[in-house]
Each structure stands twice: as structure tokens, then as C-alpha cells.
Amino acid sequence: MAAASTLKNMTLCLTLVCLICAAVVGVAYAVTKEPIDAAAQAKTTASIARVLPEFTSTPQEGSIRVGQADYKYYKVDGAGYAIISSTSGFGGLLTLMVGVTGDGKVCNTTVLSHSETPGLGAKCATDERFLSQFRGFDPAAKTLAVRKDGGDLDAITASTITSRAYALAVANAVEVFNQLNKGGQGDE
Question: 3-state DSSP call for residue 10?
């Protein structure tokens, strides 16, 4: 025998379905939270290891506000700082992790996320010729900008906007380092 289709029965049925669905989502969140957090931490640790010289100490997380933006960084004793820097590229937000050694030089960079055009701007994450320009880059001796803008960096072919955004993200990370070290006097 079917229940009568009344407002009371429909409300009760809908409420019960919502409670069951909410419980399932809550259990799924609780079960997956720890593995997701562990995977995110592993990705962060791997990125820090990629952008800084080899180290044995534990990175110390911090944040700083420079200008109108907040930056997250990881200080690694004896190696330098790994700084997360984001700018707007051609396709959207471009987020990098930039390693800056104690003497203020860029050690290496890695792309954490981007929305750039596949085959063009997306090369910012894989084009070795472009990426190698940033390794060992000394902002005290060179200008962190593409050649079109009077800098010392070659842009990715047909991706000047992405190249400019990448250079700006690195320049912003260097500025964060300078703020952290009061004008670049590193303690590493």
C-alpha cells in the first residue's frame, strides 16, 4: 500500500533523503580528508625540494603581506626561501613556487597551477629553454622582465603575456624575499 501524496509525507520524505545524502557526504569527507591533506603536503614538500638546493632541515611555513597581496613562504635553514607567488596570465591565474637562496638569487621555479592555453602559454610549465633562464638568476645584476619590456628574459614563442606573467611572479617572489630579509641581507 502506497503512502498518500500529501504535503506532510512529501516534506518528510524529502527531509529524510536530504539527511541521508548529507550523512553520506560527511562520511566521505571524513574518510578522504586525511589522504587528501597528506597528498597536498607531499606535493608542497616536493615543490620545495625542486626549487631550493638540497636541505635536511624542516621547512618553516609563514606568510607576509607585500603591497596589496598576501604571500605564503617556506623558510628552509641553510637553503633559502620557497615562496608561492601568483599573477594573472593569459588564461587566468598562474601560480608558481620560487626558490630564492640566502644571497637573493633565484635558485629555481616550478609551476603549481595555471590555466594557460595548451600548446602555447602552457609551455611555461615544460619549456626547458624558458625555465632554465630563471635558474641562478641574479636580480641584482639582471632585470626580471622579457626582452620586449627591456628585461633579460626570452619569452615563450607566441606567449608573451604568459611569459610576462611568469617573470612578474618571480619578481614578486624576489620582492617578498627582500622584505623578509630587510633589503636582501640574507641569513642563510
Answer: helix
Q: Which of 66, 59, 63 is nearest to 44 (CA)?
A: 59
Question: Which CB contacts under 8 angstroms, 24+ apart, belong to 144-148?
Answer: 144/170, 144/171, 144/174, 145/171
**Spatial distance between the Cα atoms of 166 and 155, rounded to a whole number of angstroms:** 10
Helix (H, G, I), strand (E, B) or coil at 20: helix
Fill in the amino acid letter for 77: D
What is residue 104's DSSP assignment?
S
Enter the pTM of the model.
Answer: 0.81
pLDDT digits (tens, 9 = 90+) for 49-89: 999 999 999 999 999 999 899 999 999 999 999 999 999 99
Amino acid at 92: G
CA distance 21 to 44: 33
Could you tell me how far CA 88 lies from the centroid of its own chain? 12
